[in-house]
Design brief:
EC 2.4.1.1; Glycg_phsphrylas; Rossmann fold; about 50% helix; binds ligand 26W; single chain; transferase; globular
């Protein structure tokens, strides 16, 4: 070539080679003879980062110069998954980098596997935030994601003797090449203490919050690049530190121990992610985390706004702030505080701006997941915010009293403050009142919100309610996780579908093409072989890639009903035991998922899966025809290996309980057929793929409500269904637990005497549907056809579609194509 590409921005193979060698030498002080696998991983990561930075700087520059409206996504969790391969794909240099590595004697895939993923989330909500960041950048929308830079993310799960064991996730151990610490960008965050009131010279009542603790929040930025565009948005995560010159350190002058102690207290705030999902734990530290990151983020936004020469009065025109569930809902009170106490606005104007700034997404209907804070605790952490919430509530209750003509029951349900033996703050109510839009995450979920948990809000403010069905990014969940299927699809319909998933429709005619069906099934088989190999390596277990891979992967929770799947497996086992020569379709049941460390029944469900596996996998009568696998430490990295290998996707939550689900979308996109209830986004998936390509079972949400209201008696189902009775008795007899009949008693008792999630009511329907799955799988050609049509019709479930809807219908933001100079 006539000229040499820049070492830090060039995308050619030779340049990449040069960049990798340079980084190894100049960034890490290493040379090939002594470089480790991690050194090479780092060298490549830095080479990629340089290329990201070029686009990132261009994006930020353009946003500042042209003063665009910006989306701020506030989320306590981001479950990003590994960066390297994703960035290579979005930069469009996967092949080139692979070649560069090869010429350096390196295997790119081997190095990619070296990356420890940032597990800064629990599950659905955090992973959704990550998909949305990808889509925002791909759609070239100016956006900042704000969150917490946890030093320890979601725990690592190990299985010992069938039980879950947790280990800390020290993801920063080897450094993080994807982030840039912005030491200069920091804010002071106050905690505790008391509020002084005084009159200023004009006689205006003023508030002065005297904290008991001040913590510094430091920004750590990670660029998020869109797919084959120049847009690189920012994910800004806050780390807590002791302020360098904090006032109260002088109190401790000469007291080394308490100085060190206060440093520890400060750093604790961003120390660790709370590993609970769908279950609140009213811990002071969690409230501190929420306030910490929300205050840093709002101060940051105001700073950005004012530095552009704009007026504080126009804040809501510059930023729209999306609340990812109620975890950041304290932002409503915090923006009021900043506008009034710091920027001197009057109440009316501050409230006008605040209520035009926020929008709230609800992600769960489970009552135990709706956040509340003990009022005393809240006041001791955030005394000024407690005052503000009282005042917000006072004004609201006055308004509601007139609007609702004194309907006291309704007013007390709408109140931001709950009464009882102890008073508490209702975060969902704060979010609803302080937001101009409220949305659920699937059509059914949004309807149920209006009918149940947010009914009173809906009746008072119907104009705020919307639906935004979740989506997933096809870049990570197809292009990256399943390059083989990606290539096969693109060979027939081109690559347009990667950015416009609706184009998958073009695959439909190929369902009738025997050659295409053969190639489709070959890809699936290869992915199953690859997963089988991993299972062998991790667990020493042989599984047959010719068997049906029946997959249930998600957080472990009673409402998600992993134990219903276990009842099915035992039923099948019993059938084979009684008739060893029966013609059974070989199946591999694969489970994965973490249980919250304090959730005893969920941990018992894991033990049950493993105990049943131990018996089934080793029974000579079964002879390997059915196998049960619990794949440990479910995370993004492992999910990428599991989804492409699935024949069957199990989405079996009790109808009305799963807000949306997103694993259901990833599995279906990868060609798995769904066995599911009419819950969450399953409803819409079934509508799209066609009922003939979906295995439906179980009660509907309405029927569930009806059965419950009529006094559900699980015992009746047990005593009337001999197969079900046999299964439960068998578990209770100790058959799966070395004759120890007590191990699973807590679980079986809760089913027999309560069964909140209606496993027994849905049992027979589930078993019958599984028989249909088995029949369908016997006709592999028909199965291939169904699988292809299923994928072809998943266009709706791209997060690009979700984000476009958010942009048009809630955020009112537009694309800003970024140019590189
Ligand atoms: C305070 C404890 C807590 C922590 C996390 C309560 C609730 C949560 C999340 C809201 C739980 C969650 O991740 N919900 C999931 O959100 C996904 C994205 O919208 C949906 O697809 C899942 O159905 C929903 O369970």
């Amino acid at each position: 070539s006539p000229y040499l590409e820049d070492s830090r921005t060039g995308l050619g193979v030779d340049t990449l080679k040069r960049a990798i060698r340079n980084n190894l030498f100049y960034v890490q002080g290493k040379f090939p003879e002594i470089a480790t696998r991690n050194d090479y991983y780092m060298a490549i990561a830095y080479a990629v980062r340089d290329r990201l930075l070029q686009r990132w700087v261009a994006s930020v520059k353009q946003y500042i110069q042209e003063k665009h409206r910006v989306v701020a996504y506030l989320s306590a969790e981001y479950l990003l998954g590994p960066h390297l391969a994703n960035n290579l794909i979005n930069l469009g240099i996967y092949k080139e980098t692979e070649q560069a590595c090869k010429e350096l004697g390196l295997d790119l895939d081997w190095l990619i596997e070296k990356e420890v993923e940032p597990g800064l989330g629990n599950g659905g909500l955090g992973r959704l935030a990550a998909c949305y960041m990808d889509s925002l950048a791909t759609l070239e929308v100016p956006a900042i994601g704000y969150g917490i830079r946890y030093q320890f993310g979601i725990f690592e799960q190990d299985i010992r003797d069938g039980w879950q064991v947790e280990d800390t996730d020290n993801w920063l151990r080897r450094g993080n090449p994807w982030e840039i610490a912005r030491r200069e960008l920091s804010y002071d965050i106050k905690f505790g203490g008391y509020v002084q009131t005084y009159l200023d010279r004009a006689g205006k009542l003023c508030f002065n919050w005297i904290p008991e603790l001040v913590v510094k929040g430091v920004a750590y930025d990670t660029p998020i690049l869109g797919y084959k565009v120049n847009t690189a948005n920012t994910l800004r995560l806050w780390k807590s530190e002791a302020p360098h010159s904090f006032d109260f350190q002088s109190f401790n002058a000469g007291d080394y121990n308490s100085a060190v102690n206060s440093k520890i207290i400060c750093e604790n705030i961003s120390k660790v992610l709370y590993p609970n999902d769908e279950q609140i734990e009213g811990k002071r530290l969690r409230l501190q985390q929420q306030y910490f990151f929300v205050s840093c983020s709002l101060q940051d936004m105001i700073g950005i706004h004012l530095r552009q020469g704009e007026k504080i009065h126009d804040f809501h025109k510059k930023f729209v702030v999306q609340l990812n569930d109620t975890h950041p809902a304290i932002g409503v009170a915090e923006l009021m505080r900043l506008l009034m106490d710091v920027h001197q606005l009057e109440w009316e104007e501050a409230w006008d701006i605040t209520s035009k700034t926020f929008a709230y997404t609800n992600h769960t209907l489970l009552p135990e997941a709706l956040e509340t804070w003990d009022l005393q605790l809240f006041g001791s952490v955030l005394p000024r915010h407690l005052q503000l919430i009282y005042e917000i509530n006072r004004r609201f209750v006055d308004y509601a009293t007139i609007k609702l003509y004194g309907n006291h029951q309704k007013i007390s349900s709408l109140s931001l403050i709950g009464e009882g033996p102890r008073k508490y703050i209702k975060m969902a109510n704060l979010a609803c009142l302080g937001s101009f839009a409220i949305n659920g995450v699937a059509a059914l979920h949004s309807e149920l919100l209006k009918k149940t948990v947010l009914k009173d809000w809906y009746e008072l403010m119907p104009h705020k309610f919307q639906n935004k069905t979740n989506g997933v990014t096809p870049r990570r969940w197809m292009v990256l996780a399943n390059p083989e299927l990606t290539n096969l699809i693109s060979s027939r319909i081109g690559e347009g579908w990667i950015k416009n998933l609706h184009e998958l429709k073009g695959l439909e005619p190929f369902a009738d093409d025997p050659e295409f069906r053969k190639e489709w099934m070959q890809v699936k088989f290869n992915k199953k072989k690859a997963l089988a190999k991993r299972i062998k390596k991790r667990l020493g277990l042989d599984v047959d890639p010719n068997s049906m891979f029946d997959i249930l992967v998600k957080r472990i929770h009673e409402y998600k009903r992993q134990h219903l799947k276990v009842l099915h497996i035992i039923t099948l086992y019993n059938q084979i035991k009684k008739n060893p020569n029966m013609d059974v379709v070989p199946r591999t049941f694969i489970f994965a998922g973490k249980a919250a460390p304090g959730y005893r029944k969920a941990k018992l469900m894991i033990k049950l899966i493993n105990s049943v596996g131990e018996i089934v996998n080793n029974d000579p009568d079964i002879n390997g025809r059915i196998k049960v696998v619990f794949y440990p430490n479910y995370n993004v990295t492992n999910a990428q290996k599991i989804y492409p290998a699935a024949d069957v996707s199990e989405q079996i939550s009790t109808a009305g309980k799963e807000a949306s689900g997103t694993g259901n979308m990833k599995l279906s996109l990868n060609g798995a057929l769904t066995v599911g209830t009419l819950d969450g986004a399953n409803v819409e998936i079934r509508e799209c793929v066609g009922e003939e390509n979906f295995f439906l079972f179980g009660l509907t949400a309405d029927e569930v409500a009806k059965v419950k209201s009529e006094g559900y008696k699980p015992w009746d189902y047990y005593s009337e269904n001999p197969n079900l009775k046999e299964v439960i008795d068998q578990i209770n007899s100790g058959y799966f637990s070395h004759l120890d009949s007590k191990v699973f008693k807590e679980l079986t008792d809760s089913l027999l005497y309560d069964d909140q999630y209606l496993l027994f009511a849905d049992y027979q329907s589930y078993i019958d549907t599984q028989a249909k799955v088995e029949e369908a799988f016997k006709d592999q050609d028909k199965w291939a056809r169904m699988s292809i049509l299923n994928t072809a019709r998943m266009g709706k479930f791209s997060s690009d579609r979700s984000i476009r809807e958010y942009c048009d219908e809630i955020w009112k933001v537009e694309s800003v194509p970024v140019t590189l100079d």
